[in-house]
Structures
1.
Amino acid sequence: MEKESKRFHIITYGCQMNQYDTGIISEILKNEGYIPVNNERDADIVILNTCAVREHAEKRVMGRIHSLGRLKKRKNIKIGVVGCMAKRLPELLEIPEVDFVAGPDAYRNLPVIIGREGVFEEGNPFEDYNEIWPLNEGISAYVSISRGCDNFCSYCIVPYVRGPLRSRPVDTILEEVEYLVAQGVKEIILLGQNVNEYNYKGVGFASLLGMVADIKGVEMLNFLTSHPKDIDYNMFMVMAEKKNMVRYLHLPVQAGNNRILKLMNRHYTVEEYRDTVRRLRSILPDVTLTTDLLVGFPGETEKEFMDTLALVEDIRFDHAFMFRFSPRPGTLAALMEDKLTDEEKIKRLRKLIDVQNRIIRERNKEMLGKSFRCIVMKPAKKGGYLCKTWTGKYIAVSENVNIGDVISVKVTHLRGNTPVGITQKDKEE
């Protein structure tokens, strides 16, 4: 491929791990002389880094492929589909607009794949990209501590498309964090499909968390995502002891009924989940707790759905990512009898969203009149800036502040469900 045809643009769909992988792809291509550009109109190669967790995500990708096809008719560009959807659907190569397809473990070979065209590459199932560290442009950066998943929740496609769990060596994780801090990063977010399963030569997640927290320059430390069945309570102690740890935990419960949890292959009960939350809040009273909730699972009765609502009312999550069930071909749940109509699933989802949104507002009202130390993270969509507290919540400020500043903010009101505040300096003036 000639030098002038090496401009590339990546369009990312899906989770934080996909965002991190986009950085890996970019570093691999740049090391081979490829040049990143900010939009597909200026690119010679457009790569869609895809998600396969839900049908809606895949439909969005298909729509984007066809819209890029119109660009391709006007300009000689190459279109590649990579990531989870690519691994699940190698037949994407049959779409006329698509030139190459590669799974999440094949990124190292992308420079060769791009040159060959018309190929699907699955990649090495034990790939961990250890020595490839994505360069971060902001003050917050993700660091993957593991890849893959061995849990096989009955509704989830991730283990099939991302392969088996493999933990990265401790030293390479610490070196990557030190590298990012040297580049000006202030917040580190450790990533894994299930961080609690991290284990490298006897070093578990709680120990790794303490090591990262002790690195000079890490002002804020966070992690995603934990599985309730693998919670190590030593992790809560590290969160309480280290001043740079964000008192935030994302702990997906998925459902509030034991029969449904068993069908989901989650390996914990509602009672065990409640006990984990009780112990968490006893150690970290001001913790921000968020979750994932899935409604309309095959066979879910109205009463079982109401059990989920009751759990939400009782736990009072600070935020929740809520979805209705959509079968993923190849998973166990896709083989289960699903009698619920889409209309009923949507009705239940809307009811759940209404309840959770009310709780979010009530929880955020508790912040009114209180002051929080936070880091200015990024511009807010409606003007001003968003600051992140050490409890993991965002506060909007309209003052003239700088990204990366550590400031004290007093919450004065809510805009929708978003806390809005003023800096303590302006309050004194």
2.
Amino acid sequence: MDEQLYTIPVNDAFDSDCECPLCVMRKALETDAIEFTMGPSYMDDDVRMQTNKTGFCADHVKMLYANGNRLGLGLMLHTHMQQVIKDVSSLQGKPSVGRSFFSKGRNPLVGYLEDLEKSCFICDRINRMFSRYVDTVFYLYRKDKDFRDKFAASKGFCNNHYALLLGRAESALSGKDKEEFVNTLNKLYLENMRRVCDDVEWFTDKFDYRNVDAPWKNSKDALVRGIVKLNSASVEEQKN
């Protein structure tokens, strides 16, 4: 089965000491996608056809720029801009479609630009592979008792990936497997969200002069972990 091909990265993520294994998976895929795009692949005709059509979202074009391959990025941006110029030129002045008595319809040029704003070669590449990783999570849960134990011993998930797993469980599992998975998932979410919430509370309490000499306990990186739980985002800790 295809899922077996992705058991290593999925197990590695669950083996890591993290607040959301799915965030770890997605971050690794993002790093790989940036390196792939800025590697020799930018000269590949098939890749360039895709980047010319979709371009990149604001977040990922910043990451591509930070990668340092100015020539590769320049070549991709140049041909993508040529495609945009061509498409916009053909759409300018075209009437809106879907016109009715109650609506003026959608301007095709506006629609094209709005759709372009939402498209991204990097996002598409990540999403395709990430979906397979999620399928592998459920495959391992059904087939591997050790993975079930590993899943139950994790530190839970962020809001986004908690919802994703909960929703996908409806079709990926059935019977006792689904019941056990959902119960475990719900317990993991609440227990670990409360744990991080308590750490954030103590982090703020440490700013009270009465607690200046009290130990930090587990709260020094509480903000970083809270951001993961709430926003599926990773941030670097500031060095004092």
